[in-house]
Design goal:
single chain; 457 residues; alpha/beta; Rossmann fold; Helicase, Ruva Protein, domain 3; 19 helices; ATP-binding; ATP binding
Length: 457
């Protein structure tokens, strides 16, 4: 009969017991080692990773209160927290066995034992060992995956005033368990902000689960979020936990929350209130412990007034509100972001040391970026791919919407409005330098200052 794959260490000061155990166990398992001096246990663990340790409770002659066994049990669990220890007790030592199991032993066996009983005890303990190792492996895999994802998201850049305010709020709110609602236009970095909150929380070693509510169909909503039991519907071939359950212990990020229909808002609210979910097709409720972060680019407050977003749901998710500014509001970050993406795509497309001239940077600053950072990121990627020299020029950027918006802006015939726009344009072009902007406008500095005051600029 093939031996079962397992490494077993038997520790007892009775050499007869050791030899009997070894003789029998060697026929059943792939590796069996024996030791009569418990002080040598660490040496064995240095050389081998044991699946099971059979450990005597009473070592020194005359001592039979089990304190020695408990001490060595502790040593073994320190050497390997996943160790499976089966204690060898004398007949009638039940109290001691209970004490040992509370201290972390897996099972006990009384001597003299029957071989079948010993085999059965070891076989079921081995199953536990395998699950513990599997959980460990899954945890490591999960950590590697989330570290990997986090790396992609760790660069949340900004040095402009509005971004410094965002960072300061993130720092204050991150470590709390407060529900956070992140508002902002598309592509402003709302998901980055949510991940930054998670990284700064006490849950940072747990999962961050992101759900795009805009991408989940009405019919799949419940099964995706709350899970389903086997047979709940035709495609439910097996039990499956939903995102709420998977995120338990960590952070759940619900993106595009403004896109939820009223019936789905009611379902979501009920789960958030109860902090419990039941999988579709099951009556059993599972408690969930999540930190909730939601995001949207929709005007939730207006939607509440119109009756398309539930006020009670809004109050549940917006304990703290954070607004990520649009790129147009943080033009001071343009250079930093442009250089960051140039560096990123320079590496990706093997075009290192790319430069950008001032005129091109100014063109990028003047453009409105309706798609925000995502649009900027794509524009730089495209420019790097298309560029023929190691310098990005205005020709590498096709900002058509920009010229449209610039020309439509010029269509206004209101003189005051025109003057205001020209001043802003001149300032923008000259990086906020009043002297140079004034010169370009044909004004002296004082005259420009007076106009800035007049228009509240
Ligand atoms: N401050 C920033 N620094 C660096 N990169 C950024 C920054 N903000 C956003 N990005 C990048 O812009 C892209 C869009 O960011 P993100 O997905 O977080 O935006 P979003 O607001 O969640 O978008 P949507 O509303 O479309 O879901 C990502 O590639 C992200 O890495």
């Amino acid at each position: 009969m093939a031996k079962t794959e397992a490494k077993i260490l038997v520790v007892d000061d009775d050499v007869d017991i050791l030899n009997t155990a070894r003789m029998y166990l060697k026929q059943q398992f792939t590796l069996v080692q024996i030791e009569n001096t418990p002080e040598n246990i660490p040496l064995h663990f240095d050389r081998e990773s044991f699946d099971i340790v059979l450990l005597d409770m009473n070592f020194r002659k005359g001592e039979n209160d089990g304190s020695d066994g408990l001490k060595w049990l502790n040593v073994i669990l320190n050497l390997d927290p996943n160790a499976i220890v089966i204690l060898i007790t004398a007949y009638g030592e039940f109290d001691l066995a209970v004490k040992a199991i509370k201290a972390g032993a897996t099972d006990f066996i009384t001597k003299p034992w029957k071989n079948e009983k010993l085999f059965g005890t070891i076989t079921s303990a081995l199953k536990l060992r395998q699950s513990k190792l599997e959980v460990d492996k899954l945890k490591t895999t999960q950590k590697t995956i989330s570290d990997d994802i986090d790396q992609k998201f760790e660069n949340f850049l900004g040095e402009s005033e509005p971004m410094l305010r965002v960072f300061s709020l993130l720092k204050k709110v991150g470590p709390t368990d407060a529900n956070v609602l992140i508002l902002g236009e598309n592509g402003t970095g709302k998901e980055l902000a949510a991940r930054a909150l998670h990284r700064q929380s006490s849950r940072s070693n747990e999962v961050f689960i992101s759900v795009d509510l805009g991408a989940i169909s009405e019919t799949l909503f419940e099964s995706e979020l709350f899970g389903h039991a086997k047979g709940a519907f035709t495609d439910a071939k097996e039990d499956k936990p939903g995102r709420f359950e998977v995120a338990s212990g960590g952070t759940l990020f619900l993106d595009e929350i403004g896109n939820l229909s009223m019936p789905l808002q009611a379902k979501l609210l009920s789960v958030l209130q109860k902090r419990k979910v039941s999988r579709v097709g099951s009556n059993k409720e599972v408690s969930i412990d999540i930190r909730l972060v939601c995001a949207t680019n929709m005007p939730l407050y207006d939607m509440v007034k119109e009756g398309t977003f539930r006020q009670d749901l809004l109050y549940r998710i917006n304990t703290v509100e954070l607004r990520v500014p649009s790129l147009a509001e943080r033009k001071d970050d343009m250079e930093l972001l442009v250089k960051h993406f140039m560096n990123m795509y320079g590496k990706k497309y093997k075009k290192p040391n790319m430069r950008i001239d001032a005129a091109t940077l100014n063109k990028l600053k003047r453009y409105n970026w309706p798609g925000n950072i995502r649009e900027l990121q794509h524009a730089i990627e495209r420019a790097i791919i298309l560029s023929e020299e190691n310098k990005l020029t205005t020709n590498d950027f096709l900002l058509q919407t920009s010229s449209q918006s610039e020309s439509s802006a010029d269509e206004t015939l209101n003189l005051t409005e025109m003057e205001k726009r020209l001043i802003l344009k001149a300032l923008d072009k000259n990086n906020g330098n009043v002297t140079r902007a004034a010169k370009e406008l044909g004004l002296d500095r004082l005259a420009l200052y007076r106009r800035l005051q007049k228009y509240g600029l």
